[in-house]
Amino acid sequence: MAGQVMPVKSRVQLPLHKITFTLPENTKDAFFRQLRQFADTYGFAIRIAPITPDGEQFGVQMYQESIKLLGDNALDTKEVFIGFYQQGENAVPAPYLTRLVDGLKQAVQAVPGVTVLKES
């Protein structure tokens, strides 16, 4: 299927794409605002919630019909991992995935100090 991205079939779903962002101190609220703006722009339902009582570690979930983004900063509070996963049975068109990846990077890198640390 040219032009479409399909995950490898297995018991564990691998991300279609993954990005790790740096998250400097005192930028979490601005980062969350940019995630919400991205979600609004691209039509995602979004949930951001703490995963530790102090709120320093958090999880991010964004859902559409064909794709979901899941992420957190559980391993390092100064780094946020976000993976793009197929949602449902339909393949995600490669150009659409590229547009979402580029849109997310542009949105969160508008926060001073936030950069892409790793991407694959």
Structure description:
The structure is a single chain. 25% of the residues lie in helices and 33% in strands. The chain has 2 helices and 8 strands. The model has no long low-confidence stretch (mean pLDDT 92). It has a 6-stranded antiparallel beta sheet with strand order 3-4-5-6-2-8, covered by helices on one side. It is of the alpha+beta class.
List the helices and strands and how they pair.
Elements: E1 4-5, E2 17-22, H1 28-42, E3 45-50, E4 58-63, E5 67-72, E6 79-86, E7 92-93, H2 94-108, E8 116-119
Antiparallel strand pairs: 1-7, 2-6, 2-8, 3-4, 4-5, 5-6
Question: What's the gist of this structure?
Answer:
This protein has helices at 28-42, 94-108; strands at residues 4-5, 17-22, 45-50, 58-63, 67-72, 79-86, 92-93, 116-119.
Residue stretches low in confidence (pLDDT < 50, at least 5 long) are none
Form type: globular
Helix/strand structural class: alpha+beta
| Annotation, overall tally of beta strands | 8
N to C succession of SSEs: EEHEEEEEHE
The biggest sheet amounts to: 6 strands, antiparallel
Helix content: 25-40%
Percent of residues in beta strands: 25-35%
In round numbers, the mean pLDDT is 92
Number of helices: 2
